[in-house]
Amino acid sequence: MARMDHTISDFDIHLFHEGTLYNSHAIFGAHLVKQKKKVTGTRFTVWAPHAKSVSVTGSFTDWEPGKYEMTRVNNEGIWTCFIDQDLEGSLYKYAITTAGGDLIMKSDPYAFHSELRPQTASVVYDLSGYKWGDQLYRQRVRKRRPIYERPLAIYELHLNSWKQKEDGSYLTYREYADELIPYVKERGFTHIELLPLTEHPLDASWGYQGTGYFSPTSRFGTPHDLMYFIDRCHQEDIGVLLDWVPGHFCKDSHGLYMFDGQPLYEYDSFNDRENLEWGTANFNLAKGEVRSFLISNALYWMNFFRIDGLRVDAVANIIYWANSEPETANPYATEFLQELNKAVFNENPRFLMMAEDSTDWPGVTKPVHEGGLGFNYKWNMGWMNDLLDYMEYPPFERRHHHHKLTFSLVYAYSENYILPLSHDEVVHGKRSLLHKMPGEYWEKFAQWRLLLSYLITHPGKKLLFMGAEFAQFDEWKYVQGLDWFLKDYDSHAQSDVFTKELMNFYQAHKALHEFDHDPQGFEWIDADNAEQSIYSFVRRGKRKSDTLMVICNFTNVSYDHFRIGAPFEGKWEEVFSSDRQDFGGTNHVNQTALTEENPIHNRKQSLDIKIPPLGITIWKPAKK
């Protein structure tokens, strides 16, 4: 675990400016200084090279600047001061006199806790003292097979809008532990992924425009409360992933932007600095101090909050220079991402580093020593876009777009992929997954079940955004809770039952995850049946008996007799159907079938089976 002392050595200063001080949070920020467990004072340290002077002000000075002046440590702009008081819980900011003589008030970039919005002060907070109870979980994680061979089913959620109290206020981290964890566990998800929890001023930003990178948002409680939530997740064998934004930051006046009156954390030039699409500023990844800040932040969440992985947001925005036409690669950014991933995996080889990358940049999940960026997962945005485009066509038109579902298998093994049906696809007029589906009411639900089933059976790990599990009809309304009342209606209650069984089916069948990143785990039976819009393929595990045969019908035509080439002869049983009556389907289901010597699909043996309308049927060799 990263050390947490409060001395500033010449070597640490050198590493900070070089960009390799990966525990810079142990030095910068506000720290209680203790001797023999007794607090003797509070030390503040900040980086502000362009400042004429810096002082610490806060609730302990009646917000009068200048009372506690900071001393400049070096020419590169590190300032520090020691106040011989125990200031735990006190509000504070840095009062910075700029080179032009202006006085600006800034929150601490390294603060561990923040005042509840809309207030913006930092809070002196002692992270120590929480008693963790997740030791068995951590032992199990160390002993397990690598994640590449295991199920990974992520439930992505936005805490603000998962559920709210009757008065519209938010649950606390501890209340989420009581309500969210059993809900996720019952539905068969292996991990929770939280939209950004770094402190941010605007609820509607979803957390992607941050101001306090070391400060878990105070909307839901204290840092210890968040530790409690993560601890409880681990005790129920649920991993916790955090959405993380190292590319750009919020421009509110109290935050990182123009921190000492001039560009500091951001690029100097307007063209490189300004993220015009999001109204944010891009981190200057050429600066060693910024790299120390960001890489330290990643390790901070790993070590102090024991999260299991980071989803790195908007990698395309990082690896290419902003506002460049044509797009031009930023060499500082690729170096930063490689350094970041090396530092993370050196600390914890089982950590998950997932790139949300919409580009075709090669080797995103290739190790750094082989020339890659070093992530272990990449979101498959191409698969998601093609699949959702295909599903929005009326069923009788899909035969003209058959390639949209076969194309993903051309590149499925070029990276280690996560298949995301995420928040970005159900907001801003894009409609919910259910509402995207064409046709009558029953057809929408049937296609929604088929969509999720295809997600589960396609090679790659899985991610589903909250609300999709019970087929919410409206798109994501991020200012209010999910439409929980829908579960009082049969169609949505049956959808919830379907998701539970589907996710638990995924976990139970090794063919759906053991060879996710190995071509031997997938084989087409028939990829060319465009006329009927039927796709059939095999998923394999390490044992022959784990083999699954998957048939997907993307039209509303059912078949009582459909011949399909089987991987090998013998008796087969249907182990899953999206058309079951208890799921809301037409109950066009099978039980068992015996292969016949009737060649088809380049196989010597075949089965005569039923195919449900707008549904999926999955088969497995019957036990002898």
Automatic annotation (TrEMBL):
The active site is at 313 (nucleophile), 356 (proton donor). It catalyses: Transfers a segment of a (1->4)-alpha-D-glucan chain to a primary hydroxy group in a similar glucan chain. Its EC number is 2.4.1.18. The gene is glgB. It is an enzyme of class 2 (transferase). CDD domains: AmyAc_Glg_BE (cd11322), E_set_GBE_prok_N (cd02855). Gene3D superfamilies: Glycosidases (3.20.20.80), Golgi alpha-mannosidase II (2.60.40.1180), Immunoglobulins (2.60.40.10). Pathway: Glycan biosynthesis; glycogen biosynthesis. Keywords: Carbohydrate metabolism, Glycogen biosynthesis, Glycogen metabolism, Glycosyltransferase, Transferase. Belongs to the glycosyl hydrolase 13 family. GlgB subfamily. Pfam families: Alpha-amylase, Alpha-amylase_C, CBM_48. GO terms for molecular function: 1,4-alpha-glucan branching enzyme activity. PANTHER family: 1,4-ALPHA-GLUCAN-BRANCHING ENZYME. This is 1,4-alpha-glucan branching enzyme GlgB. Residues 156-506 form the Glycosyl hydrolase family 13 catalytic domain. Monomer. Catalyzes the formation of the alpha-1,6-glucosidic linkages in glycogen by scission of a 1,4-alpha-linked oligosaccharide from growing alpha-1,4-glucan chains and the subsequent attachment of the oligosaccharide to the alpha-1,6 position. It comes from the Bacteria. Signal peptide: none annotated.
